[in-house]
Amino acid sequence: MTPFVLTRWEPENSQFWQQTGRSIAWRNLLISIPALMLSFAIWMLWSVVVVNLNKAGFNLSKDQMFWLTALPALSGATLRVFYSFLVPVFGGRRWTAISTALLLIPAVGMGFALGDPQTGYPTLLILALLCGLGGGNFSSSMANISFFFPKAEKGLATGLNAGIGNLGVSLTQFVVPLVIGVALFGSWGGAPYQAEGAPPIWLQNAGFVWVIPIVVLTVLAWFGMNDIADAKASFADQAVIFKRKHNWLMCWLYVGTFGSFIGFSAGFAMLTMALFPNVNPLTYAFLGPLVGSLTRPFGGIVSDKLGGARVTLWTFIGMVLAVLALLVFLPREGRDGNFMGFLAVFIAMFALTGIGNGSTFRMIPVIFLTERTRAAFGRGDAAQKQAVVEASRESAAVLGFTGAIGAYGGFFIPRSFGTSIELTGGVQAALYGFIVFYLSCVLVTWWYYARRNAPVPC
C-alpha cells in the first residue's frame, strides 16, 4: 500500500470522523472542486466559441453551429456511463489525475484549430466530441467524493463539488470573451484573424488559456488526493445497479434537472442569437449557469433538512410554470418578443435546475441505504454493517450513472431548439415537449418518493 491509499475509512464512525476523517475528506474535496470546474469549462467551450466562429473567418450555418454545441454533451454523457464505474476500479486519486490530464487534448487541439479559419468542419466536429472528456469527469468525481463523507454530510459535500464545479460553465462563458480579444500569449499564441473594419480576434486563446490550469490541477490531484481501499470494486460488483428500479427512476429525474441545466447552458447563447439577433448573447450567457451552479449546494443543504423528495417535487412544479412563462416572452409573427422577460425566466429556470440537481443527488444515498438496510433487517449486526457498505458502493455507482444519463439532456435540448426552429420557425414546439416531460417528473417524484406511504420516502 502507498501512503496515498487509505486502508481504514469509516466516515459513519463519529469518533473516526472527528479525529481523522473530516480533514482528509475536505482536503480531497477542495482539490476535486477546481478539477471538476476545469472539466466543465472544457466541456462547455463550444457554447461560447460557436458564436464567434464566423467573426474569426469560419463560415458556418446556424444548424452546423447547433451541432457543435450539442456534440460535446453527447460524447460527455456517453463517457460518463464508463467513468461512473472507474473510481472503484482505478482509485479516486489516480483517476482524477488521469482524467484531468486528458483535458489537454481538446484544449491544445482547439488552440491550434481555431487559429486557422481554413480548419475543416469535420475537424471542428471531432474537437467538439473530444470536449466531452470534460463532461465525463463529473460522474467519476461525484462517485469519488461520495465515498469520503458520512450520510449526514453527503448532501453538502456533493452539492459543493457539483455546484462549484458547475461554475466552470460560467467561467468559460465569462473568460473566453475576454481572452480572445487580446494577444494573451504574444507571438507564442499565433496571429489574430482580422476582418475588414473589425477588431482582431485570437479565437485560439479559447483553448490555450486552460493549458496551465490543467497541468497544475493534474499535479495537485496526483500528490494531494487519496484512494480508499474499501472503495475498490470491479465492474461486475457495481453492475448490480442495473437491476435496481430506483437507479432508472433517478436517471429519469436527473435528466429533468441536470439535463436541463447543461442543455440550457449549451444552447442559450445560440438560442438568443437566433431569437433576438440584435442582442449580444455573450453579455448574458454566463448568468444562468452561474445562478444554477450557486443554487445547487443550496438544494443539497435544504434537502438535508426537509428531504430531497419534497424539494425535487416543488422544483419540477416550478419548472413547468417557468416554461409556461417563457412562452409569453418569445417573438412571434408581428411581435418582437421581450428579451429581458426571456432572460429573467431563463435565469429562474437555471436556479430551479440547480436546486433540483442538489436535491436529486441527496435522494440517491438515502434511497439505497434504505433499500439495503431493509433487505438486511433481522439478519444481525454483521448483515446490517455489510448493507451499509453495499449501499455506499451502489450509491456511488448510481450517482455516476445518473450523471451520465442526465447529461444527454445537453445534447437533446440544443438539438430540440434547432429542429423546432428548422421545422416550425420557432421554439414553441420544443418548449411544449419540455412541459410534458417535467410533468412526468412531477408524477414520478410524488408517487415513489414524496407522497404519504411512498415506497421509499426520502
Mean pLDDT: 90
How many individual domains?
Answer: 1
- Give the ordered list of helices and strands: EHHHHHHHHHHHEHHHHHHHH
Rg of Cα set:
22 Å
Biggest sheet strand line-up = 1-2
Q: At the first level of CATH, what is the class?
A: Mainly Alpha
Shape annotation: globular
What low-confidence regions span 5 or more consecutive residues with pLDDT below 50? none
Counted beta strands: 2
Q: Count of helices?
A: 19
Summarize the structure in words.
There is one protein chain. With 458 residues, the protein is an all-alpha fold. It has a single domain, classed as MFS general substrate transporter like domains (Growth Hormone, Chain: A, Up-down Bundle). Helices cover 73% and strands 1% of the residues. The protein contains 19 helices and two strands. The protein has a two-stranded parallel ribbon with strand order 1-2. Helix 1 runs antiparallel to helix 8, helix 3 packs parallel to helix 8 and helix 14 (287-306) runs antiparallel to helix 15. The mean pLDDT is 90. GO terms for molecular function: nitrate transmembrane transporter activity; nitrite transmembrane transporter activity; secondary active transmembrane transporter activity. The chain crosses the membrane at residues 29-53, 65-83, 95-115, 121-143, 164-189, 201-223, 251-276, 282-299, 311-330, 342-364, 396-417, 429-449. This is Nitrate/nitrite transporter. Pfam families: MFS_1 (PF07690).
